[in-house]
Amino acid sequence: MIALSTGSLHSYGTARVFELAAQAGYDGIEVLVDHRWDSRQPGYLRRLSADYGLPIPVVHSPFVVEVPDWPADQLGRLRRTVVLAQEVGASTVVTHLPFRLYAVVGHWHAYRPRRFFLPVPLPRREPYYHFLRDGLMDLETGTEVTIAVENMPANQFLGLRINGYWFNSPAELERFPHLTLDTTHLGTWGLDPLAVYERLRGRVAHVHLSNYDGREHRLPPDGHLPLAGFLRRLARDGYRGAITVETDPSALDAGDEAKCLVALRRALEFCRSYFQ
Predict the structure, then answer these.
(1) Using an 8 Å Cβ cutoff, are 275 and 231 in contact?
(2) For residue 17, what are the domain limits?
(3) Per the structure, how many domains does the chain have?
(4) What is the enclosing helix (H) or strand (E) of 119?
(5) How many helices (H) and strands (E) does the chain have?
(6) For residues 77 and 240, what is the distance between their CA atoms, to the nearest angstrom?
(7) 102: enclosing H helix or E strand
(8) Res. 117 pLDDT band, cuts 50 70 90
């Protein structure tokens, strides 16, 4: 199944993302729970799924704290997302790794906004850290939802790669039974998605597919990651999980709906050309 993440068009309403995904020919939708009211209303999401003929195989736990009426802590958000997944019929929940360092995150505005990350060298271990280390299997067993832990990107600081997350190397990710392999995040570390997949493939339950060209979350055909070979290998291995196209809105020309639809179709055509 080739799905589209609602996060790829987070500047659009959820219904509009369903509509565009259906027009482009996607097989399903991954719902990112975020600030949008309709991203976390199970009845409304079920109705959109039925109206557009697009199942919801995956729900992504929110990775920001500013989600109205949702827990502010990462573990609470994950538990709430699992409940939502059950209510909309999703079999997989994506969750991020826990933060390893305290940090100051801000934006610098010059010719265009740029995000910056200032690490504070104080390690942090919150309840979510201990849960992922010791309690993840219990939650999976009790809910029959696969919780797929996502590998995370490098943060840039003074031209250096900084690891802001616990368990964020291929070796450490082996501790988790199920993973979401995010290709653009691997690109930020200079890693080949195919090589990492070879190491972790027994655990890969879900894929976030996008390319990397120095910017994250580009369209699958646009960047220097060898995604065609990666998709061919998934197909050869009989991979049966969802492959979610997860891009930045700028990669989809989201300011122009006609161009956006063309970009969505181009991404889907790429996926289907090599995953067969």
Answers:
(1) yes
(2) 2-99+126-274
(3) 1
(4) strand 113-123
(5) 10, 12
(6) 27
(7) strand 101-109
(8) low
